[in-house]
Write the structure tokens for this entry.
Amino acid sequence: MQIDWFTFTAQIVNFLILVWLLKRFLYGPILAAMERRERSIEERLEAARRLRDEAERERAALEADRAKWDAQKAQLLQEARQEAARLRDRLVAEVRADVEQQRARWLESLRRERETLVRQLREVVAETALRTAESILRELADVSLQDRMLQKLLEHWRTRPEAERSRLQNLLRQRDRPVVVRTAFAVDPAQRDEWTRRLAEITGERTAVEFVTDPELVCGLELHANGYKLSWAVGDALQDVRERIAAALENVAADTGAPARETDTPDAEAGQTVRSDA
Amino acid sequence: MNLNPDVPLWPEAPFPLNHVNATLLYSWVVMGLLTGLSAYVTRDLSTGPRMSRLQNLLEVIVGGVRQQIEEITNRDAASFLPFIGTLFLFIATSNLLAVVPGFQPPTSSLSTTAALAACVFLAVPIYGIRSQGWRAYFAQYLQPTPLMLPFNIIGEFTRTLALAVRLYGNMLSGTVIGLVLLIVAPFFVPVIMHAFGMLTGLIQAYIFAVLAMVYIASGMQAHEETAGPQPRTAASAAAAGEGTVQTRSATDHPRQTPTDTERQE
């Protein structure tokens, strides 16, 4: 254990040289490289952080955009649905109205057609019935039948209400104009007094009675006085029959689907009418 | 076998070759290896994430040394790194190469260890004066009282001596034990001893470097309130079995942290 002073000195020098060499070749370059690497890593991290922040911002913006678009889409969809519903309703309503209109038109034409048909039928039937009845009555009618008619007219007169009877009587009796009796067949002069006497119940004593023959009446009796007419005529009854037939046909037509129409049925008791010619 | 590597190899040669011995020769070998490897690796350094294995090795070593220095001194390692790092690398390489047959580690020469210790002995005042100036540096020899001046001076020398002898003794003992074991059990056992030798060699290199750093740091921090020696310093010194250092660190530079002050109040 001894120290060789030459070696000691040389080793100090050696060591200092080594310090310088390593500083030159090892520590300097290595530390610089490490620092550069750290700096570059730092820069990359910084860049990555920046990119991430940017991406985050971008993402948030896109998210917001998408939410906005979603809302818009939903709204548009809703509007479109409502619009479609409205359109559908309108179209359906239009079509319905159209159909309704067509149906109404069709029904109207149908009704008109039926009415025409009914009118024609009524006329034909009534005409036929009237002609048949007329021809039968023409063959049966004679003076004695007229007598019966007078009797019938008087009977009806009696069944009238008292007020009406007296009003008519006043009208007939006030004037001096004669009461005209129209018949289909001529009344015998012998019978005329008898008729005048019987009509006095209505006309009163003073009034003159004038007899007129009118074949158009077919078979009937009319009293004309002061513009008033009191009659019992088969023609009237036949007219009644015609109207009844027409009404019946009308009813049949109504039953087949036509809108029901109020048809006033005339009194079955035909033949007795009071009309004002004035 | 010659246990003294300081014997001149060629005594008959002219000056200075007649003074060249194994210590110097192998020191140059170590220097050449370290410098050559460094120059080879650093001629093409990569600064990207990919690098060569050797560069990675050197970065790990340099980074490790720098980190150790920063943990001990609590300041930037740039000014200490060349000195402390070279101490560590030179001693570690010398000790590790001891496994190579025929290689006589320069650290098993007392001349070498004394030279290194002398460098540390000189480095302490150099760093201390550069850090805090003449007056402040030499004033610390009068701490805590001027009566302590002789003991402080003796302490400076003894620790330097201890530094030199510790390394020398460890390395020489390795060689001596190896020789003894070769006589007792020539097979296998020396291999294990070589493995142990590598371990102790690295530990000695670490101890030498850390102690040098602690001495330099203590010389710089004598009057600095803020930067006291780290507890780790004491721990490292204790791990190295250096009780005197631990005592010195703890007594010469008590840490007055705000926490301690508050507790005292």
Notes: Residues 142-236+266-276 of chain A form one domain. Confidence is low (pLDDT under 50) at residues 258-278 of chain A.
